[in-house]
Design brief:
By secondary structure, the protein is an alpha/beta fold. It has eleven helices and 13 strands. It is rod-shaped, with a radius of gyration of 72 Å.
Length: 461
């Protein structure tokens, strides 16, 4: 039989073990999967479990704000806290002050953060269109496996004339990230070299960016196997690719981060080739439909252009007619104004010409009078000068006459002398000029002369 003093109440029992648990020093790290989760403004109450047990957890809001993610059912988490017994109900729980994702949960959280980080950079790029007529498919994948067979098989069904170029890469493990990035860059280098050399280089022909596409493919695998395709080096190489990139990594439910930067996403390598190559009949049908649509569009455009032309022509004719009428009226007004202006100018100049003529007549009269007076004065001066000149000439002439008379033989005759000349008219100036028995003429005053014969010449004495 139990002693009365050994019996305790429920409250005493819960208080005892609550104090006992509270006295345990240090914190515990507990890992588990969240199975129930209820959040309230003051705290979150949830349950974590493993394969054998479960544990109630309480985490107050001041600690929740610092964990950096929103917990949800299924998260594998690591908690830090202390044990606690709620005395009223006697429930044992973990009072947590830290929580972070654990293992794959941590990786998923890191991928989520990268996805958010790259949403405005790598994932924001404009998607390139797949060329309408693909002539070359570059494939980055493993050299072994069914991916290459599926791609070749689908190519043969769709369009056997398309060239498939395999760029082998390691698609799993530590070398995956490097080799896949290098092969993506190599594909762009090859196509760039071909385009710079007229479409031919490295033994390839008719290779250009506008007729080529790049497929990065890998079959299904575990979450860890596909992690390299979420690396920044592969994402960056797809982002920088000038070739349109189709990502076909894993199964349809897998979402590596390279899917978000690729230009198209395919769930299988077969679908990736189908995205590149339509069936010939389908292409022809699309071309026929496109040509028909283009012709209809051209007809509608021409009909619309014709209607617009007629409408604009009518508007132009109306505007031109109104413009011509306005210009004609303006021209008439300008002609009338010009006529009046010419009349005013002519009247003004006629008046000015009359004034100038009157001034000219007045000036001409004054000038004529002045010139007449001047001529009269010059005439008087000329008469005086002529009279003086005539007088001087007369005096000079008289002087010359007197000088001439002095030396004239007639003057000698007037003084009583005579002139003897021979029959030849030569004057006899000395006795030696007289020959015997010759006849001579003797000239006297007033030019009277006699004929005489000189018979003897003797000395005067």
């Amino acid at each position: 039989m139990t002693d009365e003093e050994d019996i305790c109440t429920v409250s005493e029992f819960n208080r005892y073990y609550s104090n006992l648990v509270a006295g345990v020093s240090g914190c515990f790290y507990v890992r588990g999967e969240i199975s129930k989760y209820n959040a309230y403004p003051s705290a979150a109450y949830f349950t974590i479990k493993d394969n054998e047990s479960s544990l109630e957890v309480v985490m107050f809001s001041n600690h929740l704000r610092s964990i950096g993610f929103e917990p949800k059912v299924g998260d594998d988490v690591l908690l830090r806290g202390r044990g606690d017994i709620y005395q009223k109900s006697g429930k044992f729980s973990l009072r947590a002050d830290m929580m972070r994702k654990y293992g794959i949960g941590e990786i998923l959280e890191r991928l989520r953060q990268l996805k958010e980080k790259w949403r405005s950079t790598y994932f924001a790029k404009a998607k390139k269109r797949i060329p309408l007529l693909v002539r070359n498919i570059f494939v980055v994948t493993s050299a072994q496996g069914a991916v290459i067979r599926d791609i070749i098989k689908t190519r043969n069904i769709r369009n056997a004339g398309v060239s498939v170029h395999i760029l082998p890469a390691v698609v799993q493990g530590s070398e995956c990230e490097r080799t896949v990035s290098e092969m993506i860059s190599l594909a762009n280098i090859i196509v760039g070299d071909c385009e710079n050399n007229g479409g031919s280089a490295h033994g390839l022909h008719d290779v250009r960016f506008d007729n080529s596409v790049l497929i990065v493919a890998r079959g299904g695998g575990s979450f860890e196997d596909l992690l390299p395709f979420s690396s920044e080096s592969i994402v960056r190489s797809m982002y920088e690719s000038r070739l349109p990139v189709i990502s076909s990594i894993g199964h349809e439910t897998d979402e590596p981060l390279c899917d978000f930067v690729a230009d198209r996403r395919a769930s299988t390598p077969t679908q990736a080739v189908e995205l590149c190559l339509g069936e010939i009949s389908e292409i022809r049908s699309k071309l026929d439909a496109g040509v028909k649509h283009m012709l209809n569009s051209m007809k509608q455009m021409m009909f619309g252009q014709e209607n617009r032309y007629e409408s604009k022509k009518a508007r132009f004719d109306a505007v031109l007619s109104g413009f011509c009428e306005r210009q004609s009226n303006r021209l008439k007004e300008c002609a009338l104004k010009l006529k009046h202006a010419i009349a005013d100018v002519a009247s003004y100049h006629n008046m000015r010409l009359a004034n100038l003529q009157r001034d000219l007549d007045l000036l001409a009269g004054r000038f004529a009078a002045a010139q007449s007076n001047r001529i009269d004065r010059l005439d008087d001066k000329l008469e005086l000068s002529m009279a003086a000149v005539v007088e001087n000439c007369n005096k000079h002439f008289e002087s010359l006459v007197r000088q001439l008379e002095l030396v004239s033989p007639f003057g000698v005759l007037d003084r009583g002398y005579s002139i003897i000349s021979g029959q030849d008219g030569k004057i006899v100036s000395c006795p030696q000029d007289i020959s015997g028995d010759g006849r001579y003429r003797i000239t006297f005053k007033n030019e009277k002369s006699v004929s005489a014969r000189i018979s003897e010449v003797s000395d005067a004495g």
